[in-house]
Structures
1.
Amino acid sequence: MGRLYYDGLCPFCSKLVRWGQQFLASERIQWVPLDYSDRSQLPVPVESVIYEDEGGYWVKTEAIRRLLLDSGHPFLAKLLGIIPLRWRDWMYDRIAERRYCWGKKCSQGSDAPCQ
């Protein structure tokens, strides 16, 4: 069984996880929401999605690719794997920078628009 650690305070992440729980084989995956402000909870010291299985830990887009493989979606995992890891993780980082932003205002309590 795999375990996916994600930012439980992030509305974007939580929405994707709800979609994943419906679409992916949820009995094979344990979904673990975390508060990344307490890094002692994390199995590895990062601020991104983490996927854990018997083989180890993966982060960012490789975590998503491994999740797809373990949940019975090898075609989607292979499609994601076509894109070089460096490019995938660059895109992941750009999305992660704005993950709390919805619409014109940032949901972290700031009245300033997201950049």
2.
Amino acid sequence: MKENSLQLIPKYERYIQYMLETILKLPRVEKFNIGNEFKKSMYQALENILYIEKIDKYQRLYYLNIIDTKISYQRILLRIMLKNKYIDERKFKVSMELIYEIGKILGGLIKYYAKNNKK
């Protein structure tokens, strides 16, 4: 399962890079409001992804659920950005596809650790 969690890091890095470029193009006021919230959430999720490899396997499910929550939060923020026309449909679709890939890996890790987390 270690290989799956390692795949998560470069995918999440690509997602962060894409979103940073997108956030830079937001209207000025929103760049500092919703943009800062979004960045904070992405960096917190990245930090938790990095913890997964370093902590005891019995604690991993806790961190995976935190990451999953942060990603759900980012999906909501993306829908708000689209609805308010801060981003266009194409940027929204690309962002959601990137999140979808991350979510699939995350879902697999959560299932694995939920099933194999017996002490």
3.
Amino acid sequence: MRLLRTDHNHPDFRSLVETLNQELSVRDGEDHAFYSQFNGLENLGQVVLAYEGNVAIGCGAFKFFETGKVEIKRMYTPPVGRKKGTATQVLKELEVWAKELGKKSCVLETGKNLPEAVALYSKSGYLRITNYEPYLTTDNSICFEKILN
């Protein structure tokens, strides 16, 4: 597996996010419109793509959040990249990058209807935190944070 640091303009990232959005529209159901408004790509200057050969098999990104923090966004592994540690490697690379930029922690939001995502973040050292804005009143949201050592 090869990892590439890039930004939101990379065509492979845009393609994976399009597929992610299609999958989430089904899984989120009527909540999808609410969540999609917070998933624009324009603020994602830090993107990691995972490749197997020339095929993009996973992605993730972060945006700057509060002072000293980044928010992990658009983590996705299509079926071709699953069960290979792809998401774990992408997440680790995002954490390394954030730390290189002087950030102290990563926060993120995921949904109760995404148990594989909850499992990934839990096994990667993320701890559940109180939901932050704009997810304070959403019953489906679960927020996490990891302090970068």
